[in-house]
Amino acid sequence: MASTKDYFESIEEARRRAKKRLPKSVYMALWAGAEQGLTLADNVAAFGEIGFQPRIGDLPRERSQSTTVMGQDISLPVIISPTGVQAVNPEGEVAVARAAASEGTAMGLSSFASRSVEDVVAANPKTLFQTYWCGDRDSILARSERAKKAGAQGLIVTLDWTFAHRRDWGSPPIPEKLDLKAMLKFAPEAIVRPGYLARWARAGKLPDLTVPNMVLPGEEPVGFFNVYGQWMFTPQPTWEDLRWLRESWDGPFMIKGIMHPDDARRAVDIGASAISVSNHGGNNLDSTPASVRALPNVVDAVGDQIEVLLDGGIRRGSDVVKAVALGAKAVMIGRAYLWGMAANGEAGVANVLQILRGGIDEALLGMSKSSIHELSRKDLIMPPDFSRTLA
Predict the structure, then answer these.
(1) Rounded CA gap, 362 and 203, in Å?
(2) Engineered SS bond to 14: which of 85, 146, 312, 339, CB 3.0-4.6 Å?
């Protein structure tokens, strides 16, 4: 089906539309990676190094994509990765949650999100709440308990971030709040994107830079920069800290940011139920290999003891199939759905998931697989030096 005004046939087309429709600073906040962007580029390019071994004749007439991740039944091996401070669309994470629910998958919600965990769980009961190690133990526990009370089905602890702000193309400035001074500063960017302004005008509000999930219900939401500063100056957790949080959370528990097999083993040791092989979408330590390069060694180390997911570089359904064949239970997507929302709101997010679903189905058919659970490394053609991580 060819692209139309309300439909795009590839995630790359969604990215191009997002670039045309968003103010430059907003688009660059979605696109940019740390420093030179080597990891950002490798996250995508690495998938192109992996080949398929197709089959013909007696191909399965029906193919199944359903699986289970962190106790949630999902209709395809793709879930929403948590991203914070969404100024892409007035409905923000609620629109993403509804789209994910309509496509039968789970929603990862950032503690730095622009919409409350209560609103997002109402839109998608299969919500997994993400937290950073920010503040003292009491505040971390209070936020997780709030999420649990709201109905969050799992906890994601993100550790793949070392405050790498430097970008060779310049970090887009994010104002502390949208006061008159900030609006005047960004007016030249916004005025050439009238559709973006019109969407917010119809919603009767400005892009929200507060983070309601970093406070308890009834308290005033705080600004992104307030909590970001607190996070920066909170000492990074020890494995014993993570064990304490895991024991405090009654339910599925994921550690996001694993790139080394030894860290994967430590996650198993503290009782985590899932890990995400992730380099924060190329926004952490630049020159880190692509997430998918680290995946095989991590799976070899712990894949029979814990659910392993892959986050980073997913742009098409065939990427998902390659990750699953390498041992991932499912993948997490970030930029892809944000581009979809920029392109066409909630329907654009659903469009992205439908593109991935279609690509997965085509790849399964081409390799004569009736289910994603039949995939293995034998279905792939791997270059000998593909994995560049410590074994």
Answers:
(1) 39
(2) 339
